[in-house]
Amino acid sequence: MATRAVSDGLNERQRALAFATILLAFVMDVADSTIVNTALPAIQQGLGASDRAMQWVVSGYFLTFAVLLVVGGRLGDLFGYARMFAIGVAAFSIASLACGLASGPTTLAVARLAQGAAAAIMAPQGVALIQLLYSPSERIGRLAAFGVIGGLAAIGGPVLGGLLIQLNPLDLGWRSVFLINLPFGVLALVAGRMLLPPGRSGHALRIDAPGSLLLFAALGTLLLPLIEGRSAGWPWWMGGLALMSAGLWWGFWRYERSRRARLGSALIEPSLFEDRSFRIGLAATGAFAVASGGFLLTFSVTLQRGLGYSPVDVALLHMPFGLGVMAGISQIGRKALPVHGRRVPIMGAMLMALGCAATGLAVHVAVPGVVIGALLLMAGIGMGTLSGPLGPITLSRVDRNHAGVAGAMHKTMQQIGGAMGTALIATIYFSMTGDHWPPVTAFLIATLAVAADLLAIALLLTRLPKRLFD
């Protein structure tokens, strides 16, 4: 539980500037999770990297972010939100510099792991600071803005990446997609030190280091066979790692339940899973992140490898997708959810599945870009109509005493799904292209896998209560 709001000591202009500072860091974090998608072919060519190395460059960010997100929130509770915000922004900027200066694929992958870890320190402080800056009624609009801007930033990442590759500022090539963070990081750091209020939790929970290590091991042993298996020829020990991952997940769950009973503090809150809306919403969130992460990655690569699009053309094609996401989140999903309940995200999942599969077919037969753009608009509307309601649905019946950890668990599941999507869908895609299938054919198969995932989400959401918000 955070300390009392400090907004009484700040005028409206000061609060607006503080909120803008938080948003700046939030956009840096979200955009950086997808900005490399458009730049991957240029990175691969520049560093002579394998497809496997590129999967680590994308998935590594999600991996450390997912594992350390709750830890980052706890650090803010213990040492102060503004202080940890500044540390997170500084570390994120340094890691971005390391990415931009990377001399090889291994160096870049390690720098991306560090970047994800820094984002896990930076990101949780924003939500906590909003609680200090605004009253409960004022927070609703501010958090809704996070949803809209987050969706746009996720789509805007590939757009910005494509433009930077095409414009090639200062002859930096692909390195500019990482170095662009430096001026914004410095701005966020200076503004944060000047504008953000001090504050920390009055009842900070303990940091769960063993739980974090178990979660990292469970995720790592799950991702390693997916990313390394194809290039290694799928040796028998890859299956052993998968079985080990299952055992580690079981051990993680048992440890968390035990720790919660003994100490009253754990990385997750097991009692939350007694609520059906939370269980289903969390599962749907992870599955959605698998679909969206896998689709965006393979789409950007295919347009350049398979159809010969330039990075700026790829960037332009992402724009209708972004417009669709914005419309789905801000207009359709937000307004329809209180009236139509679970039918809204179900229809969103089905529409996104249709749009993604149709886009895969359109790319396969090389239709004009304007047709692909129209299909992406449809897929984006479906994406926004699905993703916008998932957060409110997941947290709709959560006890307020567990609101903070429930929100962190929801965000963590997004990152786990993102890591799984870029590993699983990309493995399907790169396996086919590695066996000399045309990239457009591999993309079609990948989009069918994405569509199947989304239809499974729609089926899962039918198990939600008819009345979501009692």
Write the layout of secondary structure elements.
Layout: H1 12-34, H2 36-47, H3 51-79, H4 81-100, H5 105-133, H6 136-167, H7 176-179, H8 181-195, H9 209-228, H10 236-263, H11 276-305, H12 311-340, H13 343-364, H14 369-395, H15 403-434, H16 439-461
Helix pairs in contact: 1-5, 1-6, 1-8, 2-3, 2-6, 2-11, 3-4, 3-5, 3-9, 3-15, 4-5, 4-8, 6-12, 9-10, 9-15, 11-14, 11-15, 11-16, 12-13, 12-14, 13-14, 13-16, 15-16
Report on this structure.
The protein has 470 residues and is mainly alpha-helical. The protein has three domains: 8-196, Up-down Bundle (Growth Hormone, Chain: A); 209-266; 270-464, MFS general substrate transporter like domains (Growth Hormone, Chain: A, Up-down Bundle), CATH 1.20.1250. 80% of the residues lie in helices and 0% in strands. Helix 1 packs antiparallel against helix 5, helix 3 (51-79) packs antiparallel against helix 4 (81-100) and helix 9 (209-228) packs antiparallel against helix 10 (236-263). The radius of gyration is 21 Å and the shape is globular.
Looking at the structure, the CATH topology of the largest domain is Growth Hormone, Chain: A
Number of domains: 3
Taken as a percent bin, the fraction of beta residues is under 5%
Second-tier CATH architecture of the largest domain:
Up-down Bundle
What share of the residues lie within helices?
A: over 70%
**Main pleated sheet:** none
Low-confidence stretches: 1-6
Distance separating the two termini: 24 Å
Label the overall shape. Answer: globular
H/E element order: HHHHHHHHHHHHHHHH
Per DSSP, the total helix count is 16
Mean pLDDT: 85
What is the oligomeric state here? single chain
Please give the number of β-strands.
Answer: 0
CATH level 4 superfamily of the largest domain: MFS general substrate transporter like domains
Whole-angstrom Rg: 21 Å
The helix/strand class is mainly alpha
CATH class (first level) name of the largest domain: Mainly Alpha
